[in-house]
Amino acid sequence: MLQTYYENNDKFLIAVDCIIFGFQDKELNVLLTRRPVEPLKNEWSLMGGFMENGESLDQAAEKILFRYTSHKDIYMEQVGAYGDVDRDSGGRVVSVAYYALVNAENFNTSRAKKYDAKWLSVSKLPKLVFDHNKMVEDAIKLLQYKASNQPIVFKFFDEKFTLTELQDLYEAIYQMQLDKRNFRKKLSNMNLLDKLDEKDKVNSRRGAYYYTFNKERYEKFIEEGNRFSL
Amino acid sequence: MLQTYYENNDKFLIAVDCIIFGFQDKELNVLLTRRPVEPLKNEWSLMGGFMENGESLDQAAEKILFRYTSHKDIYMEQVGAYGDVDRDSGGRVVSVAYYALVNAENFNTSRAKKYDAKWLSVSKLPKLVFDHNKMVEDAIKLLQYKASNQPIVFKFFDEKFTLTELQDLYEAIYQMQLDKRNFRKKLSNMNLLDKLDEKDKVNSRRGAYYYTFNKERYEKFIEEGNRFSL
DNA sequence: GCAAAAGTGTTGTACTTACACCCATGG
DNA sequence: CCATGGGTGTAAGTACAACACTTTTGC
Protein backbone atom coordinates (compact mmCIF):
# COMPACT_ATOMS: atom_id res chain seq x y z
CA MET A 1 0.00 0.00 0.00
CA LEU A 2 2.74 2.39 0.98
CA GLN A 3 4.99 1.20 -1.79
CA THR A 4 2.08 1.45 -4.19
CA TYR A 5 1.49 5.09 -3.45
CA TYR A 6 5.12 6.04 -3.93
CA GLU A 7 5.88 3.68 -6.78
CA ASN A 8 2.94 4.58 -8.95
CA ASN A 9 4.63 7.85 -9.82
CA ASP A 10 6.97 8.77 -12.65
CA LYS A 11 10.69 8.45 -12.16
CA PHE A 12 13.40 10.63 -13.60
CA LEU A 13 17.05 10.70 -14.42
CA ILE A 14 18.81 13.14 -12.13
CA ALA A 15 22.07 14.71 -13.22
CA VAL A 16 24.52 16.85 -11.29
CA ASP A 17 26.47 19.57 -13.09
CA CYS A 18 29.51 21.20 -11.52
CA ILE A 19 30.58 24.77 -12.00
CA ILE A 20 34.22 24.57 -10.98
CA PHE A 21 35.49 28.07 -10.27
CA GLY A 22 39.20 28.82 -10.21
CA PHE A 23 41.19 32.01 -9.94
CA GLN A 24 43.97 32.52 -12.46
CA ASP A 25 45.52 35.46 -14.29
CA LYS A 26 43.42 37.86 -12.24
CA GLU A 27 40.29 36.34 -13.67
CA LEU A 28 37.51 34.12 -12.41
CA ASN A 29 37.61 30.98 -14.53
CA VAL A 30 35.37 27.98 -14.98
CA LEU A 31 36.70 24.54 -15.81
CA LEU A 32 34.83 23.42 -18.90
CA THR A 33 34.98 20.28 -20.93
CA ARG A 34 34.01 19.00 -24.31
CA ARG A 35 30.88 16.96 -23.82
CA PRO A 36 31.93 13.31 -24.16
CA VAL A 37 28.61 11.86 -25.31
CA GLU A 38 25.81 12.49 -27.73
CA PRO A 39 23.80 14.59 -28.13
CA LEU A 40 25.95 17.68 -28.68
CA LYS A 41 29.12 15.60 -28.38
CA ASN A 42 32.24 17.80 -28.27
CA GLU A 43 30.36 20.97 -27.46
CA TRP A 44 31.47 23.00 -24.44
CA SER A 45 29.81 21.81 -21.30
CA LEU A 46 29.94 21.80 -17.54
CA MET A 47 31.21 18.63 -15.95
CA GLY A 48 28.24 16.50 -15.16
CA GLY A 49 27.02 13.03 -14.54
CA PHE A 50 24.09 11.07 -13.25
CA MET A 51 23.14 10.50 -9.67
CA GLU A 52 23.09 6.85 -8.57
CA ASN A 53 20.83 5.04 -6.14
CA GLY A 54 23.04 4.83 -3.09
CA GLU A 55 24.23 8.41 -3.01
CA SER A 56 22.89 11.77 -1.91
CA LEU A 57 22.86 14.79 -4.20
CA ASP A 58 25.88 16.21 -2.36
CA GLN A 59 27.71 12.91 -2.70
CA ALA A 60 26.88 12.75 -6.39
CA ALA A 61 28.38 16.22 -6.80
CA GLU A 62 31.56 15.13 -5.05
CA LYS A 63 31.70 12.04 -7.22
CA ILE A 64 31.47 14.07 -10.42
CA LEU A 65 34.12 16.46 -9.22
CA PHE A 66 36.40 13.59 -8.31
CA ARG A 67 35.81 11.83 -11.61
CA TYR A 68 37.02 14.82 -13.57
CA THR A 69 39.66 16.22 -11.29
CA SER A 70 40.79 13.51 -8.82
CA HIS A 71 40.17 15.96 -6.00
CA LYS A 72 38.28 15.36 -2.78
CA ASP A 73 37.23 17.57 0.11
CA ILE A 74 36.51 20.50 -2.13
CA TYR A 75 34.14 23.24 -1.00
CA MET A 76 30.88 22.85 -2.90
CA GLU A 77 27.55 24.55 -2.68
CA GLN A 78 24.27 23.86 -4.38
CA VAL A 79 23.06 26.42 -6.90
CA GLY A 80 19.66 24.98 -7.69
CA ALA A 81 17.61 22.46 -9.62
CA TYR A 82 16.87 22.84 -13.32
CA GLY A 83 13.80 21.02 -14.47
CA ASP A 84 12.45 22.33 -17.75
CA VAL A 85 10.95 19.54 -19.80
CA ASP A 86 13.13 20.10 -22.84
CA ARG A 87 16.28 21.36 -21.17
CA ASP A 88 18.28 18.28 -22.23
CA SER A 89 17.79 17.33 -25.86
CA GLY A 90 18.93 13.79 -25.07
CA GLY A 91 16.05 12.97 -22.78
CA ARG A 92 14.15 13.99 -19.71
CA VAL A 93 16.73 14.86 -17.10
CA VAL A 94 16.43 17.05 -14.05
CA SER A 95 19.78 18.53 -13.21
CA VAL A 96 21.07 19.98 -9.97
CA ALA A 97 23.92 22.46 -10.29
CA TYR A 98 26.71 22.82 -7.75
CA TYR A 99 29.62 25.20 -7.72
CA ALA A 100 33.06 24.34 -6.40
CA LEU A 101 35.91 26.65 -5.44
CA VAL A 102 39.42 25.41 -6.15
CA ASN A 103 42.93 26.70 -6.46
CA ALA A 104 43.38 26.75 -10.20
CA GLU A 105 47.16 26.82 -10.08
CA ASN A 106 47.82 23.75 -7.99
CA PHE A 107 44.97 22.02 -9.68
CA ASN A 108 45.62 18.68 -11.22
CA THR A 109 44.31 19.03 -14.72
CA SER A 110 46.16 15.98 -16.07
CA ARG A 111 43.05 13.92 -15.57
CA ALA A 112 40.89 16.74 -16.72
CA LYS A 113 42.91 16.93 -19.92
CA LYS A 114 41.60 13.53 -20.86
CA TYR A 115 38.27 15.27 -21.17
CA ASP A 116 39.63 18.27 -23.05
CA ALA A 117 39.08 20.37 -19.96
CA LYS A 118 40.06 24.04 -20.08
CA TRP A 119 39.89 27.00 -17.78
CA LEU A 120 37.84 29.69 -19.45
CA SER A 121 37.22 33.17 -18.08
CA VAL A 122 33.66 33.78 -17.00
CA SER A 123 33.74 37.07 -18.87
CA LYS A 124 34.21 35.33 -22.23
CA LEU A 125 32.30 32.12 -21.99
CA PRO A 126 31.34 30.29 -25.17
CA LYS A 127 27.86 28.93 -25.72
CA LEU A 128 27.50 25.88 -23.53
CA VAL A 129 25.15 22.95 -24.03
CA PHE A 130 21.58 22.98 -22.78
CA ASP A 131 20.96 25.47 -19.98
CA HIS A 132 24.53 25.42 -18.69
CA ASN A 133 25.10 29.11 -19.37
CA LYS A 134 22.16 29.89 -17.12
CA MET A 135 23.62 27.64 -14.43
CA VAL A 136 26.93 29.50 -14.57
CA GLU A 137 25.16 32.85 -14.37
CA ASP A 138 23.17 31.73 -11.36
CA ALA A 139 26.31 30.31 -9.75
CA ILE A 140 28.15 33.60 -10.22
CA LYS A 141 25.34 35.56 -8.59
CA LEU A 142 25.34 33.18 -5.66
CA LEU A 143 29.12 33.32 -5.41
CA GLN A 144 29.03 37.12 -5.40
CA TYR A 145 26.54 37.10 -2.57
CA LYS A 146 28.35 34.47 -0.53
CA ALA A 147 31.75 36.06 -1.06
CA SER A 148 30.44 39.39 0.19
CA ASN A 149 29.31 38.07 3.56
CA GLN A 150 31.16 34.83 4.20
CA PRO A 151 34.87 34.05 4.13
CA ILE A 152 34.63 31.52 1.33
CA VAL A 153 37.08 33.10 -1.08
CA PHE A 154 40.01 31.70 0.86
CA LYS A 155 39.10 28.32 -0.63
CA PHE A 156 40.54 29.65 -3.87
CA PHE A 157 44.01 29.71 -2.31
CA ASP A 158 46.24 27.06 -0.82
CA GLU A 159 46.34 28.63 2.60
CA LYS A 160 48.44 31.72 1.99
CA PHE A 161 47.91 34.69 -0.30
CA THR A 162 48.94 38.32 -0.66
CA LEU A 163 46.53 41.18 -0.16
CA THR A 164 46.91 42.13 -3.79
CA GLU A 165 45.93 38.62 -4.86
CA LEU A 166 42.94 38.73 -2.55
CA GLN A 167 41.83 42.05 -3.97
CA ASP A 168 42.30 40.83 -7.55
CA LEU A 169 40.13 37.86 -6.66
CA TYR A 170 37.34 40.01 -5.28
CA GLU A 171 37.53 42.24 -8.33
CA ALA A 172 37.19 39.18 -10.53
CA ILE A 173 34.20 37.89 -8.58
CA TYR A 174 32.40 41.23 -8.37
CA GLN A 175 33.48 42.19 -11.87
CA MET A 176 34.36 45.66 -10.71
CA GLN A 177 37.38 47.63 -9.53
CA LEU A 178 37.96 48.14 -5.82
CA ASP A 179 39.93 50.82 -4.06
CA LYS A 180 43.14 49.39 -2.63
CA ARG A 181 43.20 51.41 0.57
CA ASN A 182 39.54 50.96 1.35
CA PHE A 183 39.78 47.24 0.70
CA ARG A 184 42.75 46.89 3.06
CA LYS A 185 41.09 49.06 5.67
CA LYS A 186 38.08 46.76 5.81
CA LEU A 187 40.34 43.75 6.09
CA SER A 188 42.40 45.20 8.87
CA ASN A 189 39.29 46.33 10.75
CA MET A 190 37.97 42.78 10.83
CA ASN A 191 41.38 41.53 11.93
CA LEU A 192 40.91 38.01 10.60
CA LEU A 193 44.18 37.61 8.73
CA ASP A 194 47.59 36.61 10.02
CA LYS A 195 50.58 38.24 8.39
CA LEU A 196 53.40 35.77 7.70
CA ASP A 197 57.10 36.64 7.67
CA GLU A 198 57.29 35.22 4.20
CA LYS A 199 57.00 37.33 1.08
CA ASP A 200 55.89 36.64 -2.44
CA LYS A 201 58.78 37.84 -4.57
CA VAL A 202 57.39 36.65 -7.87
CA ASN A 203 55.06 39.50 -8.63
CA SER A 204 57.19 42.40 -7.49
CA ARG A 205 60.76 43.25 -6.61
CA ARG A 206 59.82 44.57 -3.24
CA GLY A 207 57.79 41.51 -2.36
CA ALA A 208 54.34 41.30 -0.82
CA TYR A 209 53.70 39.69 2.54
CA TYR A 210 51.72 36.50 2.60
CA TYR A 211 48.68 36.26 4.84
CA THR A 212 46.55 33.40 6.07
CA PHE A 213 42.94 33.35 7.15
CA ASN A 214 42.56 32.72 10.89
CA LYS A 215 39.54 30.48 11.32
CA GLU A 216 39.53 30.58 15.12
CA ARG A 217 39.57 34.35 15.13
CA TYR A 218 36.73 34.33 12.62
CA GLU A 219 34.60 32.12 14.85
CA LYS A 220 35.10 34.44 17.81
CA PHE A 221 34.41 37.39 15.54
CA ILE A 222 31.02 35.89 14.60
CA GLU A 223 30.19 34.86 18.16
CA GLU A 224 30.71 38.45 19.23
CA GLY A 225 27.97 39.46 16.83
CA ASN A 226 30.15 40.84 14.06
CA ARG A 227 29.54 40.27 10.40
CA PHE A 228 32.04 39.44 7.70
CA SER A 229 31.73 41.97 4.89
CA LEU A 230 33.90 42.64 1.86
CA MET B 1 23.25 4.13 -28.40
CA LEU B 2 22.23 7.54 -27.18
CA GLN B 3 19.22 6.15 -25.44
CA THR B 4 21.41 3.46 -23.97
CA TYR B 5 23.77 5.90 -22.35
CA TYR B 6 21.00 7.92 -20.77
CA GLU B 7 18.73 5.03 -19.92
CA ASN B 8 21.31 2.86 -18.22
CA ASN B 9 21.23 5.14 -15.23
CA ASP B 10 19.14 5.06 -12.09
CA LYS B 11 15.85 6.91 -12.00
CA PHE B 12 14.27 8.65 -9.05
CA LEU B 13 11.00 9.89 -7.73
CA ILE B 14 11.02 13.67 -7.64
CA ALA B 15 8.75 15.49 -5.26
CA VAL B 16 7.98 19.17 -4.97
CA ASP B 17 7.24 20.67 -1.55
CA CYS B 18 5.66 24.11 -1.18
CA ILE B 19 6.32 26.54 1.61
CA ILE B 20 3.26 28.75 1.34
CA PHE B 21 3.91 31.98 3.20
CA GLY B 22 1.09 34.22 4.28
CA PHE B 23 0.89 37.33 6.39
CA GLN B 24 -1.72 37.39 9.12
CA ASP B 25 -2.02 38.82 12.64
CA LYS B 26 1.30 40.62 12.21
CA GLU B 27 3.03 37.30 11.79
CA LEU B 28 4.60 35.39 8.97
CA ASN B 29 2.70 32.15 8.64
CA VAL B 30 3.13 28.93 6.72
CA LEU B 31 0.23 26.90 5.44
CA LEU B 32 0.76 23.38 6.78
CA THR B 33 -1.20 20.23 6.39
CA ARG B 34 -1.59 16.86 7.99
CA ARG B 35 0.27 14.43 5.80
CA PRO B 36 -2.40 12.43 3.97
CA VAL B 37 -0.41 9.25 3.34
CA GLU B 38 1.87 6.82 5.08
CA PRO B 39 4.53 6.95 6.35
CA LEU B 40 4.00 9.55 9.06
CA LYS B 41 0.35 9.92 8.11
CA ASN B 42 -1.31 12.81 9.95
CA GLU B 43 1.96 14.43 10.98
CA TRP B 44 2.48 18.11 10.13
CA SER B 45 3.93 18.51 6.69
CA LEU B 46 4.47 20.92 3.86
CA MET B 47 2.19 20.53 0.90
CA GLY B 48 3.90 18.30 -1.57
CA GLY B 49 3.45 15.94 -4.44
CA PHE B 50 5.30 14.13 -7.16
CA MET B 51 6.50 15.56 -10.41
CA GLU B 52 5.04 13.92 -13.51
CA ASN B 53 6.56 13.24 -16.90
CA GLY B 54 5.09 16.04 -18.93
CA GLU B 55 5.77 18.92 -16.58
CA SER B 56 8.69 21.07 -15.55
CA LEU B 57 9.72 21.53 -11.93
CA ASP B 58 8.10 24.96 -11.92
CA GLN B 59 4.90 23.55 -13.39
CA ALA B 60 4.88 20.76 -10.82
CA ALA B 61 5.15 23.37 -8.09
CA GLU B 62 2.19 25.28 -9.54
CA LYS B 63 0.24 22.05 -9.78
CA ILE B 64 0.81 21.23 -6.11
CA LEU B 65 -0.15 24.72 -5.05
CA PHE B 66 -3.30 24.55 -7.14
CA ARG B 67 -4.19 21.12 -5.83
CA TYR B 68 -4.21 22.33 -2.26
CA THR B 69 -5.44 25.87 -2.67
CA SER B 70 -7.24 26.23 -6.03
CA HIS B 71 -5.07 29.24 -6.78
CA LYS B 72 -3.11 29.98 -9.93
CA ASP B 73 -0.64 32.67 -10.93
CA ILE B 74 0.95 32.79 -7.54
CA TYR B 75 4.48 34.10 -7.11
CA MET B 76 6.78 31.15 -6.49
CA GLU B 77 10.51 30.79 -6.20
CA GLN B 78 12.72 27.75 -5.91
CA VAL B 79 14.51 27.24 -2.62
CA GLY B 80 16.64 24.25 -3.52
CA ALA B 81 16.89 20.51 -3.98
CA TYR B 82 17.03 18.10 -1.05
CA GLY B 83 18.67 14.83 -1.85
CA ASP B 84 19.84 12.96 1.22
CA VAL B 85 19.47 9.24 0.77
CA ASP B 86 17.28 8.71 3.82
CA ARG B 87 15.46 12.01 3.89
CA ASP B 88 12.09 10.37 3.15
CA SER B 89 11.41 7.28 5.23
CA GLY B 90 8.91 6.09 2.65
CA GLY B 91 11.40 5.62 -0.14
CA ARG B 92 14.11 7.29 -2.17
CA VAL B 93 12.74 10.66 -3.16
CA VAL B 94 14.58 13.80 -4.18
CA SER B 95 12.54 16.82 -3.29
CA VAL B 96 12.67 20.35 -4.64
CA ALA B 97 11.30 23.04 -2.35
CA TYR B 98 9.51 26.16 -3.56
CA TYR B 99 8.12 29.02 -1.58
CA ALA B 100 4.97 30.91 -2.51
CA LEU B 101 3.76 34.30 -1.30
CA VAL B 102 0.03 34.72 -0.90
CA ASN B 103 -2.47 36.98 0.75
CA ALA B 104 -3.51 34.91 3.73
CA GLU B 105 -6.74 36.80 4.32
CA ASN B 106 -8.37 36.45 0.95
CA PHE B 107 -6.98 32.98 0.66
CA ASN B 108 -9.39 30.22 -0.11
CA THR B 109 -8.76 27.65 2.53
CA SER B 110 -12.03 25.78 2.01
CA ARG B 111 -10.25 23.34 -0.22
CA ALA B 112 -7.23 23.38 2.02
CA LYS B 113 -9.46 22.45 4.93
CA LYS B 114 -10.08 19.13 3.29
CA TYR B 115 -6.43 18.48 4.02
CA ASP B 116 -6.54 19.81 7.56
CA ALA B 117 -4.54 22.80 6.44
CA LYS B 118 -3.69 25.48 8.97
CA TRP B 119 -1.75 28.70 9.05
CA LEU B 120 1.00 28.39 11.63
CA SER B 121 3.39 31.12 12.64
CA VAL B 122 6.97 30.51 11.56
CA SER B 123 8.08 31.45 15.06
CA LYS B 124 6.28 28.49 16.62
CA LEU B 125 6.45 25.72 14.09
CA PRO B 126 5.87 22.14 15.20
CA LYS B 127 8.14 19.33 14.15
CA LEU B 128 7.42 18.62 10.51
CA VAL B 129 7.98 15.37 8.65
CA PHE B 130 11.32 14.50 7.08
CA ASP B 131 13.53 17.52 6.39
CA HIS B 132 10.64 19.96 6.01
CA ASN B 133 11.76 22.12 8.94
CA LYS B 134 15.07 22.62 7.19
CA MET B 135 13.24 23.57 4.00
CA VAL B 136 11.22 26.19 5.85
CA GLU B 137 14.36 27.61 7.47
CA ASP B 138 16.10 27.84 4.11
CA ALA B 139 13.01 29.41 2.58
CA ILE B 140 12.88 32.06 5.30
CA LYS B 141 16.52 32.97 4.79
CA LEU B 142 15.94 33.29 1.07
CA LEU B 143 12.78 35.32 1.64
CA GLN B 144 14.63 37.67 3.99
CA TYR B 145 17.30 38.24 1.38
CA LYS B 146 14.87 38.72 -1.49
CA ALA B 147 12.58 40.98 0.52
CA SER B 148 15.51 43.23 1.39
CA ASN B 149 16.47 43.98 -2.19
CA GLN B 150 13.48 43.19 -4.36
CA PRO B 151 9.89 44.40 -4.16
CA ILE B 152 8.41 40.95 -3.65
CA VAL B 153 6.58 41.60 -0.38
CA PHE B 154 3.74 43.31 -2.23
CA LYS B 155 2.67 39.84 -3.36
CA PHE B 156 1.45 39.33 0.20
CA PHE B 157 -1.23 41.95 -0.36
CA ASP B 158 -4.11 42.25 -2.76
CA GLU B 159 -2.88 45.44 -4.38
CA LYS B 160 -3.33 47.95 -1.59
CA PHE B 161 -1.91 48.15 1.89
CA THR B 162 -1.17 50.68 4.62
CA LEU B 163 2.33 51.66 5.60
CA THR B 164 1.80 50.17 9.03
CA GLU B 165 0.82 46.86 7.50
CA LEU B 166 3.88 46.97 5.28
CA GLN B 167 6.13 47.64 8.24
CA ASP B 168 4.50 44.88 10.28
CA LEU B 169 5.15 42.54 7.37
CA TYR B 170 8.83 43.45 7.18
CA GLU B 171 9.14 43.04 10.91
CA ALA B 172 7.60 39.58 10.64
CA ILE B 173 9.95 38.60 7.82
CA TYR B 174 13.10 39.99 9.42
CA GLN B 175 11.99 38.90 12.87
CA MET B 176 13.07 42.21 14.31
CA GLN B 177 11.57 45.59 15.18
CA LEU B 178 11.98 48.48 12.77
CA ASP B 179 11.87 52.19 13.44
CA LYS B 180 8.67 53.67 12.02
CA ARG B 181 10.15 56.97 10.88
CA ASN B 182 13.24 55.43 9.36
CA PHE B 183 11.18 52.83 7.55
CA ARG B 184 8.86 55.44 6.08
CA LYS B 185 11.76 57.67 5.16
CA LYS B 186 13.35 54.92 3.09
CA LEU B 187 10.04 54.27 1.38
CA SER B 188 9.43 57.88 0.53
CA ASN B 189 12.99 58.30 -0.74
CA MET B 190 12.49 55.49 -3.25
CA ASN B 191 9.16 56.99 -4.28
CA LEU B 192 7.69 53.75 -5.55
CA LEU B 193 4.32 53.86 -3.81
CA ASP B 194 1.14 55.65 -4.81
CA LYS B 195 -1.01 57.04 -2.04
CA LEU B 196 -4.69 56.39 -2.55
CA ASP B 197 -7.49 58.65 -1.34
CA GLU B 198 -8.96 55.68 0.48
CA LYS B 199 -8.28 54.92 4.10
CA ASP B 200 -8.29 51.77 6.16
CA LYS B 201 -10.63 52.54 9.04
CA VAL B 202 -10.55 49.07 10.56
CA ASN B 203 -7.34 49.30 12.50
CA SER B 204 -7.66 52.82 13.81
CA ARG B 205 -10.21 55.56 14.29
CA ARG B 206 -8.17 58.05 12.44
CA GLY B 207 -7.66 55.73 9.50
CA ALA B 208 -4.48 54.97 7.57
CA TYR B 209 -4.07 55.78 3.90
CA TYR B 210 -3.83 52.88 1.50
CA TYR B 211 -0.91 52.71 -0.89
CA THR B 212 -0.17 50.69 -4.00
CA PHE B 213 3.13 49.64 -5.48
CA ASN B 214 3.85 51.37 -8.78
CA LYS B 215 5.51 48.83 -11.03
CA GLU B 216 6.24 51.25 -13.89
CA ARG B 217 7.99 53.64 -11.52
CA TYR B 218 9.97 50.71 -10.13
CA GLU B 219 11.18 49.73 -13.57
CA LYS B 220 12.37 53.26 -14.30
CA PHE B 221 13.95 53.38 -10.86
CA ILE B 222 15.99 50.27 -11.66
CA GLU B 223 16.90 51.43 -15.16
CA GLU B 224 18.30 54.60 -13.65
CA GLY B 225 20.72 52.47 -11.66
CA ASN B 226 18.97 52.63 -8.31
CA ARG B 227 18.56 49.72 -5.97
CA PHE B 228 15.52 48.68 -4.02
CA SER B 229 16.41 48.37 -0.35
CA LEU B 230 14.31 47.92 2.76
C1' DG C 1 -12.40 63.75 26.63
C1' DC C 2 -9.76 59.85 25.98
C1' DA C 3 -7.80 55.81 24.02
C1' DA C 4 -5.42 54.10 20.06
C1' DA C 5 -3.13 54.14 15.98
C1' DA C 6 -1.29 57.53 12.23
C1' DG C 7 1.80 60.56 10.95
C1' DT C 8 5.98 63.53 10.92
C1' DG C 9 12.17 65.84 11.38
C1' DT C 10 16.43 66.40 13.36
C1' DT C 11 20.84 65.24 15.01
C1' DG C 12 24.87 62.43 15.99
C1' DT C 13 27.40 58.50 14.48
C1' DA C 14 29.32 55.12 11.59
C1' DC C 15 30.37 53.79 7.26
C1' DT C 16 31.71 54.58 2.53
C1' DT C 17 34.02 56.86 -0.92
C1' DA C 18 37.58 59.43 -3.19
C1' DC C 19 42.13 60.43 -3.58
C1' DA C 20 48.26 60.60 -4.09
C1' DC C 21 52.58 59.75 -2.59
C1' DC C 22 56.68 57.20 -0.70
C1' DC C 23 58.94 52.53 -0.20
C1' DA C 24 61.70 48.56 -1.28
C1' DT C 25 64.02 45.89 -4.48
C1' DG C 26 66.12 43.49 -8.70
C1' DG C 27 67.90 44.26 -12.68
C1' DC D 1 69.05 54.69 -11.10
C1' DC D 2 64.81 53.41 -12.48
C1' DA D 3 60.77 50.66 -13.26
C1' DT D 4 57.42 47.99 -10.85
C1' DG D 5 54.20 46.74 -7.70
C1' DG D 6 53.60 47.27 -2.26
C1' DG D 7 52.08 49.80 1.18
C1' DT D 8 49.87 53.71 3.84
C1' DG D 9 46.00 58.15 6.02
C1' DT D 10 42.70 61.79 5.73
C1' DA D 11 38.71 64.41 4.64
C1' DA D 12 34.06 64.79 2.69
C1' DG D 13 29.77 62.85 1.91
C1' DT D 14 26.30 59.59 2.60
C1' DA D 15 23.51 56.38 4.95
C1' DC D 16 21.87 54.72 9.30
C1' DA D 17 20.21 54.87 14.03
C1' DA D 18 18.07 56.94 17.80
C1' DC D 19 14.62 59.60 19.45
C1' DA D 20 9.06 62.11 21.07
C1' DC D 21 5.37 64.56 20.16
C1' DT D 22 0.98 66.05 17.59
C1' DT D 23 -3.13 64.56 14.89
C1' DT D 24 -7.44 62.34 14.07
C1' DT D 25 -11.62 60.28 15.30
C1' DG D 26 -15.04 56.78 17.17
C1' DC D 27 -16.76 55.69 21.25
Automatic annotation (TrEMBL), chains A, B:
- Residue ranges of domain NrtR DNA-binding winged helix in the record: 153-213
What is the name of this protein? Uncharacterized protein
**Record's InterPro entries?**
NUDIX_hydrolase-like_dom_sf, NUDIX_hydrolase_dom, WH-like_DNA-bd_sf, WH_DNA-bd_sf, WHD_NrtR
Question: Where is the Nudix hydrolase domain positioned along the sequence?
Answer: 13-137
> Which CDD domains does the record cross-reference, listed alphabetically?
NUDIX_NadM_like
- Superkingdom of the source? Bacteria
**Top-down, what is the taxonomic lineage of the species of origin?**
Bacteria, Pseudomonadati, Bacteroidota, Bacteroidia, Bacteroidales
Kindly name one Pfam family recorded for this protein.
Answer: NUDIX
Query: Known PANTHER family for this protein?
Result: ADP-RIBOSE PYROPHOSPHATASE, SLR1690 PROTEIN
Q: Where are the transmembrane segments?
A: none
